[in-house]
Amino acid sequence: MADQYKLFINGEWTDSEEKVEVLNKYTQDTYAEVAKAGEKEVDQAIEAAQTAFKTNPMPPYKRYQILKRVSELLQENKEELAKNITMEAGKPLKQARTEIDRATQTFELSAEEAKRIHGEGVPVEAAPGSENRMAFTIKVPVGVVGAISPFNFPINLVAHKIAPAIASGNAVVLKPASATPISALKLAELFEEAGLPKGFLNVVVGSGSTVGKQMMEDSRINLYTFTGSANVGLKLKQNTGLNKLILELGNNSPVIIDKEADVQMAAKNTAQKSFAFAGQVCISVQRLYVHEEVREEFQQAFIEAIQELNVGDPNDAETDVGPMISEEEAERAETWIKDAEKEGAKIIHGGKRNGALLEPTVLTNVTKNQKVVCEEIFAPVVSIIPFSNLKDCIDELNESQYGLQGGIFTQNIDTAFYAAKNVQVGGLMINDSSQYRVDLMPYGGVKGSGWGKEGPKYTIEDMTEERLVVMNLNQDV
Amino acid sequence: MADQYKLFINGEWTDSEEKVEVLNKYTQDTYAEVAKAGEKEVDQAIEAAQTAFKTNPMPPYKRYQILKRVSELLQENKEELAKNITMEAGKPLKQARTEIDRATQTFELSAEEAKRIHGEGVPVEAAPGSENRMAFTIKVPVGVVGAISPFNFPINLVAHKIAPAIASGNAVVLKPASATPISALKLAELFEEAGLPKGFLNVVVGSGSTVGKQMMEDSRINLYTFTGSANVGLKLKQNTGLNKLILELGNNSPVIIDKEADVQMAAKNTAQKSFAFAGQVCISVQRLYVHEEVREEFQQAFIEAIQELNVGDPNDAETDVGPMISEEEAERAETWIKDAEKEGAKIIHGGKRNGALLEPTVLTNVTKNQKVVCEEIFAPVVSIIPFSNLKDCIDELNESQYGLQGGIFTQNIDTAFYAAKNVQVGGLMINDSSQYRVDLMPYGGVKGSGWGKEGPKYTIEDMTEERLVVMNLNQDV
Amino acid sequence: MADQYKLFINGEWTDSEEKVEVLNKYTQDTYAEVAKAGEKEVDQAIEAAQTAFKTNPMPPYKRYQILKRVSELLQENKEELAKNITMEAGKPLKQARTEIDRATQTFELSAEEAKRIHGEGVPVEAAPGSENRMAFTIKVPVGVVGAISPFNFPINLVAHKIAPAIASGNAVVLKPASATPISALKLAELFEEAGLPKGFLNVVVGSGSTVGKQMMEDSRINLYTFTGSANVGLKLKQNTGLNKLILELGNNSPVIIDKEADVQMAAKNTAQKSFAFAGQVCISVQRLYVHEEVREEFQQAFIEAIQELNVGDPNDAETDVGPMISEEEAERAETWIKDAEKEGAKIIHGGKRNGALLEPTVLTNVTKNQKVVCEEIFAPVVSIIPFSNLKDCIDELNESQYGLQGGIFTQNIDTAFYAAKNVQVGGLMINDSSQYRVDLMPYGGVKGSGWGKEGPKYTIEDMTEERLVVMNLNQDV
Amino acid sequence: MADQYKLFINGEWTDSEEKVEVLNKYTQDTYAEVAKAGEKEVDQAIEAAQTAFKTNPMPPYKRYQILKRVSELLQENKEELAKNITMEAGKPLKQARTEIDRATQTFELSAEEAKRIHGEGVPVEAAPGSENRMAFTIKVPVGVVGAISPFNFPINLVAHKIAPAIASGNAVVLKPASATPISALKLAELFEEAGLPKGFLNVVVGSGSTVGKQMMEDSRINLYTFTGSANVGLKLKQNTGLNKLILELGNNSPVIIDKEADVQMAAKNTAQKSFAFAGQVCISVQRLYVHEEVREEFQQAFIEAIQELNVGDPNDAETDVGPMISEEEAERAETWIKDAEKEGAKIIHGGKRNGALLEPTVLTNVTKNQKVVCEEIFAPVVSIIPFSNLKDCIDELNESQYGLQGGIFTQNIDTAFYAAKNVQVGGLMINDSSQYRVDLMPYGGVKGSGWGKEGPKYTIEDMTEERLVVMNLNQDV
């Protein structure tokens, strides 16, 4: 029988009638069953969070201790947690292990940042007529954070929401992706072991259309943090009153291979970064803009590097590319490829699908209005687009509705910083692909790619309010 | 004949068929006629802004020079600008003069901040595996700013939008309040004189339901900055896609008079700050929470101080309280007062209305669900609410949907900082009323009072995007 | 036979001919013998540090790991380390335990700050003519840090020097106080266990006149960090060429008891903070300025609180006040007391000496030029000085050559912040004594009390150099 | 008869018996006579500064207004001030004009920074046991600043000292270089016109051995700021007790021409920046490290660019290179050149001297221990040093006792940032020479090049003390 999991509400493991079935994404067998949150459970979770926040504030050092302990527990349970990710997400084991290491960093950093929250002096005495004032700001938590997380990093993208939320003194209601809820529940177990007081973390499992919708409409939630599609992000913006938002949405990440690039290095790097977790990463390379002078050399080296990737069973520690999250998603991506093909695109590598497993696929001869180029494909599919003039290339790639991260490979300093100044993204990588991320850095997009930044230090800024305190002082003492 | 004004689009003064009539708010005569923007003009304005932004970026020092020049021109034209405010807004002349002085500060500060926009280093080399990286952020302008400004500070709340927008390198489309559009047009003249290149500032006059709506739906606008009601703020959030927002909305500002307050000082201060510009200030004192031990003394001193206020013709340089923006608005406020009276509230001062002129009004015996208490009254009306326990008092006043600014009068340091930590507002004034503002400070609310902060330094942060640049460096040189 | 200790040079435990004898400060018996560094050993230590720094740079995360591990080892070895402090310093055991807890914090914070060292953007493009530039700063370690530490916190004041030094990537040569060298050597053992590469920490034991002098004259040391007397601090400034300095020197800490103070609380607090470790703390209360209106009440409560202190054997876990560091030092303090007495001072508590043990002593009727007032007494001796006018009181206490920390007890916010603005110290405590310190805060004096700040974040700023990098960029790419 | 100038003490123009004769540096005729400060005048100046500081503090906005007005007056008097610099310093007129423009910036920036001085919050509540605390820092002026300025920028290096000093609320005693005192006195006139209260700026003229020495020994001066030789800097460090210091000392600036440089651009740039004001600039190019692959091309282009420089009468607006400050100095430089020649160096351009006028001189075949290489030559003399391996080149140039600024010309991003990380200087310019400076940037050296940074924002940090204020708050209110 499949493993059974309960909800985590107000410090209690809570069962419910209905269940969410979680599949082994490689075999498509049932892997586990999880209690499904109904209206009552969601309400209890929000109530618990609000009560915890209002009645039991945690001092910063205690938050530090709990989060630091969770970061240690992640390492102590690394193998088990990684295997669970591979099961419920279909993520190749070695990438799952990396995810645990990164989540460890996310918790460690959040713990440390809990001790560094502070305001700043405001020189009101420099305004005419305010010579006798003194002012500074303090940072206060927003209250209840509603977190909605995606399937692709079932631990680390949950970590990026709840660790900074706890670090800044908030209480959390978390709805993990219904495809991959178990990682979040296991994380709740670690929090319990680490001594988190009840109510500060509540995990409710269910679909966006029920649980998500209810959370969206409950005004006790003060801030929503969401990673997922631009469509859902927009809905959140429209339906959450005047509450605060952090949105990490899509991208169709561009990477430029300039004529002065180290082409071999660029080819190896981008081959790795285009297909990790079957391209289901927000900053996975999707659009490769290659200068005509080096296109042939690059294309050859790129294909060779792809051929060295191991495709198949994610449980195999050598696998680089495994299945997509579902057969439906793989079919969708296949359709986009075929649509492009009909309009003249050529598949120069891959293109075949077997169930949820789509081969690493490389297209050429694409045009800029094809979905494989202008939409987020979120699949192991990359298009090579030639260019001859860098400025024109950048103008074109900026036409995207998205702007999360991008990359450029070039040895030339002027070229590199022209790109830095002009590519409209939240992060531009020089001599690296768009897919570079370390957890301490500010991460977040512009345009349709979102609002606010992740990275514990930055998220904490968004999850606290800065209150100005001005003293009108009498010097006659 | 009334003065005639045109729109300012792409550096040209542009007429149109339809006109907006602007009244002298004290006499209710026609004061001026202004060209009304139709669909075409709004489109041209947005187009002009986008083109200016894309094709003619201004270096920081040039932005500084233009904004500094405007700040000087404000002083050179102070008397004329102040008189115009008095005419179109009904604001007492001395308060109008103060507004010009403050706008001078807003431009001066924005000019200076234009030279101080910078990113910061990001220690990516401290992440495991990233030892060879170096990273920093740069700040880039968002693009086209759509600004929608209110009637109550026709110069300075326009200044807080367009000066930081220009300072950070953006182009602006401004829709001023249709009741008071002339100040904005006069400001555009000063910009023209100061040498602003065409297209960077465009002023379109018209109603929210036409011009405002069109702006809201035009995706070429990258960021909206709005001051006004929570209702309209919410609409903007819901109808502007994933674009960025700065919202400065309402408040029903609370001020606490503690038992250890300097009661006489508190009474004089709050009497001034409850009725300035007929209470039509976002942070005007509305709820006076007075400790029972000092209530009698306070109430008497407060009424005495009100009696010293000059009420009447705003053109008189001695006037403290003039008309409200319209008779309709005065009637609305009167209705709220009467509703409260029916439920037992007592008017202990004022309460009478003559056209748009409502007397400074003080209520007691109110209850917390009456509109005069729980909604933003935006009129010269204040309620005295007694309390005996500070913590309970703060819990109660925090029930408001708003949280812009508040104040506390107390000599006790523990009491003062208990309030600072616990009153849920964007700014808490110690020994001053909620209505303290200098233009350099961060200004903005929590909860239903808005998003983002004004104050040039802070607005610039919101009007720029922080882009991360990471270099993957090879040390084998 | 007494325990034997060796020097720690280039990762090796190194013996030498001559020995330093370390006494049990309570019994004055020999407690241990430590190898004494000669000219050769000091030279080797500096050489080792320079070589480690130049040839084996540690990336930030590795520094983090080592320092975090040391902080854990401090807790694992807490009891042993505390007992050693009691032995070699005569510090009461409970204060020694507190010191280990604080050192744990110092290492933990330093570890974390190692991951947060970063520069900032510099807006050179805002200078006329520099529109095409981009600039930022990076922080680089200074190189070899020469640390000279005092006897009074044999672990934590060593920690405040070497933990930030290692955190910022420097190598260290440490000369601990010759009265208390064993704590430093034990700390070196913990570093060794934590995996510090050889050469990054070197401990050389000996007197200031030999080892200290040699360090001072060796130009391979790039920065000196010293805690001790103003005299020695001045010598360091004069004899270290143009090298950098951090100096934490003396103080005769003033605390004000205002007429609006919570007198009972103030009396208890200051009684504790005047005599901890026999007053041998840089920020020990020495001058108590008490308002005449509350003087009698304060004095009585103060004496009562002192009578509750346990005086005697530092090994006893209940002891509050133990011996001074040496009989000579106790005699010196006794002389100062007697000198004051001759000039009219009255001893209202204590005053007797038994070997190195001097009773908690309270003086009244002192004058401002007596050594007990104007010099740093560094003994369990405090003077009560009455005042009637706060401003005059502050003017008088500011006459001190020192300015490390001070305190004021008052409930009045105006009084509190008048003191904050006007008392010339590095840190002013409101409703606490001068002796408040947590390890994360900036700590350091003005005037003759020193240069630079301690607190890991702040020390790291002083132990790194900020290098500006400006790129002259060509936009024709 | 020569113009007569008086001292500026306590707001009065004060004459004295003795005079300092100021020469026209081109003709060596007497240009002016200036009152020479004796012991009495220096004492009065310091007394006046201390009294002004203690009794008449200026609020920030007033400091802003005065400094801003001085910046305007500099432009209004630009031509006169520039001509005076040319006279007393022998600086070519166009460079003198540039200096006035830069000083305008220095004052403008200082004025603006006066309004931006603020502390920051300190999260003491994150320390175990301090949960009830709240803390922040405030910045207070140091008091009396003693400024000693050099001859080479008689206006702008005075500006970098006194403008930030006034901006931060200090009072100043200035001793300008005795060769060029008139610029400083004219600046004092502008301050007077701008309304500076008496005592905040005092100018005393005289030699270092009398006036400088007296200032050094007067303990009423709280901070010394000095630009000049390393020798005098060291003396200041040794003889000013524990007072604070800002030292801007010498350099023998290195610039690297890499094999991937834009050689033509590099040659033109460095030719300009090696000989401006006859090389008497702290960051004048002195050591040109040229990669062997491009050496020939560079050398030819460099000599050609030098030949286009106009050498001669500094009063001529076309002149690029004029006389040195004195014949003695020109003779000293000539001797260094000849010494190098004797040891095998070759003069490939210039080398001849006519009075104080030394031709732009280029040496090759130098060795690293010759004075022309390892000492600061402060003359129009540059050495070309070939290299073949970049890392070795950087190791070698780092052997210098100095480290102010350096430059590298290269198009390769890895090379550029290898240099940025490894060249031991305060500022490294990529694709520009060492001589790049704008007044807003942090400017200052490492090693023997000094302590502290100039640039108004940075100097203000050094000229204020950061005081921590901690509140111990009782939540039972």
Automatic annotation (TrEMBL), chains A, B, C, D:
<protein>
    <submittedName>
        <fullName>Aldehyde dehydrogenase family protein</fullName>
    </submittedName>
</protein>
<keyword id="KW-0560">Oxidoreductase</keyword>
<dbReference type="InterPro" id="IPR016161">
    <property type="entry name" value="Ald_DH/histidinol_DH"/>
</dbReference>
<keyword id="KW-0175">Coiled coil</keyword>
<dbReference type="InterPro" id="IPR051020">
    <property type="entry name" value="ALDH-related_metabolic_enz"/>
</dbReference>
<feature type="coiled-coil region">
    <location>
        <begin position="64"/>
        <end position="113"/>
    </location>
</feature>
<feature type="domain" description="Aldehyde dehydrogenase">
    <location>
        <begin position="13"/>
        <end position="467"/>
    </location>
</feature>
<dbReference type="InterPro" id="IPR016162">
    <property type="entry name" value="Ald_DH_N"/>
</dbReference>
<dbReference type="Pfam" id="PF00171">
    <property type="entry name" value="Aldedh"/>
</dbReference>
<dbReference type="InterPro" id="IPR015590">
    <property type="entry name" value="Aldehyde_DH_dom"/>
</dbReference>
<dbReference type="InterPro" id="IPR016163">
    <property type="entry name" value="Ald_DH_C"/>
</dbReference>
<comment type="similarity">
    <text>Belongs to the aldehyde dehydrogenase family.</text>
</comment>
